Fold:
Amino acid sequence: MPRLRLAALALLTMALALAGCATNPVTGKSQFSLVSSAQEEQIGREGFPAVVAEYGAYGDTALQAYVDTVGHRLARVSHLPNLKWRFTLLDDPTVNAFAMPGGYIYVTRGILVHLNSEAQLAGVLGHEIGHVTARHTANRMTQQQLTGLGLGLASAFSPSIARYGQLAQQGLQLMFLKYSRDDETQADELGVAYATAAGYDPREIPATYAMLKRVSDRAGQRLPGYLSTHPDPGNREEKTRALAHKATEGKTGLTVHGRSYVQRMNGVVFGKDPRQGFLEGTHYYHPQLHFQVSFPADWKVEDGRSAVRAASPEEQPTSRMELTLTQKNDLSPAAAVAELQRSGRITGAQGAAETIGGYPAWVGHLAVPGEQGGVTVLTAVFLRKSPELMFQVVGKSAEPDDAGDDAIVATARSFRDLTDPARLDVLPDRIKVVTASHAGDFQGLLQSLGAQAIGEEDTEILNNAHADQMLNANELVKIVVAGRRR
Structure:
């Protein structure tokens, strides 16, 4: 073997030895890891504000406190009861829950309204706690580093993620990290064990996975759906049912809290909240920030809470753009560009100041250094709407000054104040909890309630029910009532 290869192998061996082994809290066994417990905690801590900035915390303090209370009840009986656990309810319609290292657990309002008991919520939270206690994320990160993949950006072009620090970026990217089926099996086992130890009835858990399977093919979600990051290890419902049966043998008085849980869902926002921005075709309106912008007519536009992204049609040369708010500062657009160059985030800029929609702006191109020493030229527009609000449109086309480049600049130049009262005064759809006046099948009850914001099948999934399922008088049912649109 050549001496250089021997030296490289020796260095690798030394690095792995220095990384050392850690004891897995669940198994008690020593396992190799390139990610220490301190690093896990740091990733989770620095990722937390980035997650909240990207997806938003749901503004119901009572509901947030409820999720936190249930979460800590489970955490106390986990393998890491002394970890500084944090449970956060995100203002996102996606049906999902996920964990970050260091004890940071997130559930979306989308999954919350699809559950039908506190015991089901305990099962979801227990599962995510299990991913943390078993160090599944640290294991995935270690495997990726060993294979040279790293955690890279979710895409090669993502200014909204790139604006965060490295550890915060890692935290955001972990939301898209897919667990192995073995990880999921172990987390299922731990979820049942923790829920039972906390006094919840784990026999509620299999119904959760039946619901998740029914929503797994739903499109239009910004966060990944539950089953895309938590793959079914096979026969999940049957396996968790068997685990629950064994865990409850000889036990009585276990908590379900179905009716009180459903009552808590009354008034929760359902689906996309138009107050945080909405599309009409390729025209985008943001009532809370009072602005509007028009994207190219044939481009595909994706509306997110922290960014609006658009891409050219597949048959055209690839062009992409992203509209975001920049970090808060009091610089003018031209001064902000100069600061980017001074800090080394860009190596050059070519453009000029102008006025867009009555606001000061800068329009031009930025040279951004690449990881391998190259340079990427981006089209960029910065616009200051107020001392607190600086908008940026950053895009990449096949060539500078081509049709895609022109489309990116034209989009930015369409920026205007939103003054239309009809588009400002919008309200989201919300959950309404109704009581069955008499016994009958689920479909019959829905039809007796008149027009609703979502279809019968979606309402059935929302209630973990089926059309021919019989309901008792006074049973609670969740429906969705329409908000206000133009």
Remarks:
- The chain has three domains: 21-260, 275-421, 429-481.
